[in-house]
Design a protein that fits this description.
alpha+beta, S-adenosyl-L-methionine-dependent methyltransferases, 5-stranded antiparallel β-sheet, 5 strands, 21% strand, DUF2782 domain-containing protein, DUF2782
């Protein structure tokens, strides 16, 4: 009785090693066949280049800046993109700098009716290069 139990126990321990060896042999055979197929294949011709190359659409121009000085000493910078006014920076002689923006792209500096006759003003707190 002891010998049959010992035989079954030994067989169960040796089966995983045998299965692993068979699996490794099959894998190495498959890898060898794949490598041989790649090496024996004829080289593929290079893809032909298109005759006409189309260029991407032109990039928007950088904002054109027009700087002018008003009679009272204020400096006004007008920023335009593709001919449309997008932003105005005003640097008063005796006051902090402020900025007016065109928020909807119509070329006019916006006023909000809900806020009354006040144009949106943005103060520059800090600026760096």
């Amino acid at each position: 009785m002891k010998s049959s139990i010992l035989f079954a126990f030994t067989l169960s321990l040796s089966l995983p090693a045998w299965a692993q060896a068979q699996s490794e042999a099959a894998t190495s055979t498959e890898e060898a066949e794949a490598t041989e197929a790649l090496l024996s294949a004829e080289p593929r011709p290079a893809d032909e280049l298109p005759e006409k190359v189309t260029l991407p659409p032109p990039v928007e121009q950088a904002p054109a800046v027009k700087i002018r000085t008003v009679d009272n000493g204020d400096v006004v910078e007008e920023y335009r993109v593709n001919g449309r006014l997008t932003m105005v920076k005003v640097k008063p002689r005796n006051a902090p700098e402020y900025t007016l923006l065109d928020t909807n792209g119509d070329g006019r500096l916006d006023k909000k009716d809900a806020e009354g006759p006040v144009a949106p003003v943005y103060w520059t707190l800090y600026e760096w290069n």
